[in-house]
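P.,

For your records, the input lines for the assembly:
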Amino acid sequence: MRSIVIIPTYNERENLPPLVAAVLAVAFDADILVVDDNSPDGTGELAESLAASTDRVRVLHRAGKQGLGTAYIAGFKYALAHGYARIVEMDADFSHRPEDLPALLRAAEQADVVVGSRNIPGGRAENWSPLRHLISKGGSLYARTLLGLPIKDCTSGFKCFRREALQAIDLDGVVSNGYGFQVEMNYLCHRAGLRLVEVPIIFPDRTVGHSKMSSRIMREAATLVWRLRRRRPALVHVPVAAAGRSAEPLTETVELIPSYAGAMEGSHT
Ligand SMILES: Nc1nc2c(ncn2[C@@H]2O[C@H](COP(=O)(O)OP(=O)(O)O)[C@@H](O)[C@H]2O)c(=O)[nH]1
Ligand SMILES: [Mg+2]
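Structure tokens returned:
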């Protein structure tokens, strides 16, 4: 029952070594897969030297910058091929705190997809301007409303999938690559009848390195919602991987917040 934490990197040489050390320490049953797109700053070689010091770290090298979405798809395929039971998405820049990882993994015992959420009680983004909060929360409200998603943070990239969830969707059919990638994955999982839940996360701003997200990627996310709505795959009513588990009572040790309960509070971009 091993887990794998997929960390896509593009120019993250200052962040990667301390992040890898923190993840290995906090999630003792998890391995790490770094997916590097031939970072000009040498992050790929650095990842190789980390991999040489422990068999818990693996590296996938891609020829050039091909975007976050395809990096994750490549990572998911690796994880499925290597038999991992739980598959985590995590940014390299410490916006996703290693200390929140155990709660994500625990919640995956009772859900197919666990979304680290800034928009439920206990979760938040730190040091954001009011405008950034508005764009992020507005974006989630938009995606949630138009696509009928059962979660409040639709663009979060700190997530855990059970392998059955990734097997239930067509990874080669995913069309988006930036923020839209998270929305699309949520939508495909939801339409496949999988159980999505949210756990609260604190999302500090990156302190080292630079964001690679652009306004083009935000526009992609905005138009994607309409494309997904038009394409709308049939909603599966019987949960695929969650069958037999969805009726289980939640244990007190798992801080699990059913994502379909309560009113909308907001999101991130
Ligand atoms: N492999 C790969 N990683 C990427 C790419 N673009 C961004 N990343 C990584 O994806 C994560 C999130 O990107 P970031 O720039 O922090 O986005 P932001 O948090 O939305 O500003 C970081 O770990 C980046 O290094 C890409 O094209 N390829
Ligand atoms: Mg970031």
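Two observations worth noting. The helical segments are 16-26, 43-53, 68-81, 101-107, 130-147, 163-168, 179-191, 215-231. The CA atoms of residues 149 and 223 lie 16 Å apart.

Regards
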